[in-house]
Design a protein that fits this description.
This protein is of the alpha+beta class. It has 11 helices and 14 strands. A hairpin with a 3-residue loop joins strand 7 and strand 8. It is globular and about 55 Å long. The chain binds adenosine-3'-5'-diphosphate and magnesium ion (3 copies). Its cofactor is Mg(2+).
Length: about 350
């Protein structure tokens, strides 16, 4: 099978996919280095969620790659530099982590490796890093080309050595067209890199510790189950992020007897694409919470191109045109196409009973 690095064909979005894969892989390399170092630099954000050196560093690195290759594209990113500008010590630690994990590795490397580092964008100093982090402030997701990045999704999972993901999607006029998920703690040792282009399927390859290498990809498809009772369902670890009791009730209603697989982050989408589970349930713990675009862009395409669908809890498609958060959707459910009717019917009934109809949004 030809790798995208050596392929001479010109499939649509081939460059976007390759740069996104390399950028996510480079950010994954940084995240592993931060995890293995003593200093994680964890801060609590204003919404009481954690952010670390890995979140800021991964955002800076991925944005450097996007700006270098697609300078006219807009970007939506989870983080901004506010907490770093008011904490110079932390800003220095983020820059140091990037330099050590990424650029000091390029000294003495072959010219192909350092040219790959140039292709992925170089961050020369702290000021440049802070400015880059702020490039993800786009608020309009519905028009033109907009990248959506979650530099570390599942920061809580990352901190406890559980699942986390680096998730990068490209929206074209509000439709997810390219999706890349790096999951350093999923599957084989070193983790996996999944990618999808709309209409071209989903592939997986190992994450490597070499910035310039993308190993040969293999095609992935969801398990072709045709009855819901054969399913294993997947849900988050954090009880505050979804309603576990209700999810258990829905699973029982679908005839599911196996215990759920609990993973942090968009690794749940990856787990479905890789056949570790078949249904992902994310029913809101609060109707006030608006799900973030970057928490679902890459994962939803990775699953859809592997034979699945991602809907809200009312059985409607996720609408990525509404800015940084979903305004027209509550809850997320993901399943293989073959069982979507049954899953949607059961979830919809429960959703209307417990949360009220869609008109209450
Ligand atoms: N009350 C809430 N309901 C649903 N999701 C929430 C939430 N509070 C935070 N989150 C989101 O849940 C994501 C993690 O998902 P999961 O619980 O599936 O691991 C977080 O991503 P980050 O870790 O990138 O901040 C955050 O965006
Ligand atoms: Mg976060
Ligand atoms: Mg997230
Ligand atoms: Mg995040």
């Amino acid at each position: 099978m030809a790798t995208t690095t050596t392929s001479t064909s010109s499939l649509p979005y081939e460059k976007e996919r390759r740069i996104a894969e390399l950028a996510v892989q480079r950010a994954a390399i940084l995240s592993k280095a931060v995890y293995n170092s003593k200093v994680k630099g964890t801060l609590e954000k204003s919404d009481n969620s954690p952010v670390t050196i890995a979140d800021f560093g991964a955002q800076a690195l991925v944005f450097a790659s996007l700006r270098n290759n697609f300078p006219d594209d807009n970007i939506i990113g989870e983080e901004d530099s506010g907490d770093l500008r008011s904490n110079k010590e932390l800003a220095s630690l983020v820059f140091k982590a990037i330099t050590e994990a990424v650029y000091s590795n390029t000294t003495g490397q072959s010219s192909s490796e350092s040219s790959s580092s140039n292709e992925l964008g170089v961050i020369n100093n702290e000021a440049e890093m802070l400015d880059l982090i702020d490039k993800g402030d786009c608020t309009d997701s519905g028009k033109g080309r907009v990248w959506a990045l979650d530099p570390i999704d599942g920061t809580k999972g990352f901190l406890r050595g559980g699942q986390y993901a680096i998730a990068l999607g490209l929206l074209v006029d509000g439709v997810v067209t390219v999706g890349v998920l790096g999951c350093p703690n999923l599957g084989e040792e070193g983790g996996v890199l999944l990618s999808a282009v709309k209409g071209q399927g989903t592939v997986v390859r190992p994450l490597t510790s070499d910035f310039s290498t993308l190993p040969d990809p293999s095609r992935v498809t969801m398990n072709p189950i045709t009855t819901t009772s054969d399913a294993t369902f997947c849900e988050g670890v954090e009880t505050g992020h979804s309603n576990h009791n209700l999810q258990a009730k829905i699973a029982a209603g679908l005839g599911i007897t196996k215990p759920s697989v609990r993973y942090d982050s968009q690794a749940k989408y990856a787990a479905l694409a890789l056949g570790e589970a078949e249904i992902y349930l994310r029913l809101p713990s609060s109707m006030k919470y608006e799900e973030k675009i970057w928490d679902h862009a890459a994962g939803s395409l990775v699953v859809e191109e592997a034979g699945g669908v991602a809907f809200d809890m009312y059985g409607e498609k996720l609408d990525f045109t509404t800015g940084r958060t979903f305004k027209k959707n509550k809850g997320v459910i993901v399943m293989p196409k073959a069982i979507q009717e049954d899953v949607v019917r059961v979830v919809r009934e429960v959703a209307i009973e417990v949360y009220g109809g869609k008109s209450s949004l």
